[in-house]
Amino acid sequence: MDRVEIALGPLTYNWTAARRASFYEGIAADPTFDMVYMGETICAKRQAINGAVMAEAITALEAAGRKVVHSTLSLATTDPERRAIADLVEDPSLTIEANDAGALRGVVGRPHHVGPHINVYNPGTLEVLAERGAVAMCLPWEIDRKSLDVLIRRGRDLGMVMEVEVFGKAPLAISARCHHARAYGMTKDGCQYVCDRDAEGMAVDTVDGQPFLTLNGLQTQAHAVTVLIAEIAELVNMGVGRLRLSPLDLDMSAVAAVYRKLLDGALEAPAAEEALLALLGERDPANGFYYGVEGSTWAA
Q1: Which of 30, 74, 151, 168 makes an SS bond possible with 253, Cβ 3.0 to 4.6 Å?
Q2: How many CA atoms lie within 13 A of 225 on its CB side?
Q3: Can you tell me the distance from the alpha carbon of 11 to that of 30, in angstroms, rounded to the nearest whole number?
Q4: Torsion sign over Cα 292, 293, 294, 295
Q5: Model confidence pLDDT, tens digit, residues 3-25
Q6: Which residues of 266-280 are buried (b: 16+ CB within 10 A; e: fewer)?
């Protein structure tokens, strides 16, 4: 069987320029990551203030031999945002991950990736995407194991590299409005980039004080961190070609090392799970989507 790669997904949080530079410096130095997805997928306003440091990070990653894929916004609501996506996808030198229908339209006929924000739930959709030039597909977070099996096998038959998110906070929704800014008493237009106060988004509790969701700018994420580790052997048997890790404010190189050792047979699943849970600290783990139950469930 082909070697399963490890990819780092795009940074979904609004970290400062200094924090981003330090983070990607470490990623560039870590050969565990075969591929790194770069680009602002949540809020175009963040791109305006972080564009320079992200461009420098891309240069460093490529110089270190990492494959870089440029991810697009997952929701474009204004003409400038649509033009920015168009400018990105029209550059033939870039490998693009399309995260909305407009980006898909711009890359038709050339090799490209399809991101997890595109709703792909059946083999017919995969076939259409492959015909239009998709060479890789990261499936949506909420798909259960039976559907993953069908889609991964069909994608492989079509010559696509099938990718699954195995670590990170699952995206649940995205809006044109910024509830994160509203929570701080601000508007979207006058937000003062307040989302940079929360390194992993703002926790939202229920009325009785139970952890519930995470606000991340325009995006709503799960509270718990998706952790698929005991499930990796099954995913490999299905034919998954790449595992994606979504950045959190912890040692992502250590996280990647656990997955690499597990894939290479240097670590057994129980020990790998124990190591990952230790890295999570007080964060709650979840794997419910995989088993077709509530996504916040942890089936140990």
Answers
A1: 30
A2: 23
A3: 17
A4: negative
A5: 999 999 999 999 999 999 999 99
A6: ebeeeebbebbbebb
Distance, CA of 39 to CA of 61 (rounded, Å): 13
Residue keyed to tokens 């070697």: 3
- In whole angstroms, give the CA distance from residue 115 to residue 102: 13
Give the amino acid at 249: D
Cβ-in-10-Å burial (0-12, 13-18, 19+) of 22 comes to exposed
Convert the pLDDT of each residue in 79-105 to its tens digit: 999 999 999 999 999 999 999 999 999
Q: Positive or negative CA dihedral for 52, 134, 226, 280? A: negative
Helix (H) or strand (E) holding 236: helix 232-238
Rounded distance, CA 143 to CA 7, Å?
19
Reported as a single tens digit per residue, the pLDDT across 231-240 is 999 999 999 9
Lowest mean pLDDT among 47-51, 63-67, 145-149, 198-202: 47-51
Q: Residue 156 has which token pair?
A: 């492989």
**Domains in the chain with CATH codes:** 5-169+224-291 (3.20.20.120)
Report how many helices (DSSP H) and strands (DSSP E) the chain contains, helices first. Answer: 10, 12
CA gap 29, 251 in Å, rounded: 13
Q: What is the pLDDT of residue 1?
A: 60
What is the number of other CB atoms lying within 10 angstroms of the CB of residue 183? 14
Amino acid at 101: A
236-295 tens-digit pLDDT: 999 999 999 999 999 999 999 999 999 999 999 999 999 999 999 999 999 999 999 999
pTM, two decimals, is: 0.96
C-alpha–C-alpha distance, residues 85 and 103, integer Å: 6
Paired tokens of 151: 């889609």
**Residue 245, token pair as written in the block:** 């890790």
Q: How far apart are the first and last CA of the chain?
A: 28
